[in-house]
Amino acid sequence: MNTEEIQAAYVANSRAAGDVLQSEFPELAHLATGGEFYFSTFKILDLARQLKRFQPKSVIELGTGVSTHIFDWWQRETGCSVTSVEESQQWYDKIRADLPDTKIDIVLTNKVFNAAECWYQWTTQGDRSCDLLYVDGPANTITADPTTPHVCNDALLIQAGVVLFDIRVTSVMHYKQKNPDAQFTAATHLHPHIDTSLIDPDIHHSIFVNRD
Question: pTM for the complete prediction?
Fold first, then answer.
């Protein structure tokens, strides 16, 4: 399949995924934005399925957004502890406003970086561990040089039973290099040919899962 065919198949199947999301997780279906952000349907569906699969009792989320709403749902369903870490005052304020009654511990902290890596200051301020770590932050480019991607190093600093990477292919490869025995799979989609471009963020969204 060429790029155009893959994208067309993805759009068609993302609509079908909306029906699956409504069937499996009707309480989350309203989070799917549709339109040009069609990847969110797969993101919501896959993350909800992973939570059901792994049944974590403690979650650390790096970078807030639609995933925070899903973790809020999981916290209400199971009573698990959730910490969401954010570097942006704008996003911190938004998620506070969106989820005023959440029991999630939402932390605003600084991003730290060197020539090649970035991480949250919060990560190094204690012994951090959880059943499930969700990596969607910090922003992996440095403001002064937005063309240079930096790998997100928090996954190597936090002890987690399962690690989910939200796209961030360079961070996945960095983690894999440091943990050669770790096993990864990509998010499951409805079209069998989509796997040919799972690591291409220009085509669609992906979640990589460290199953170990």
Answer: 0.83
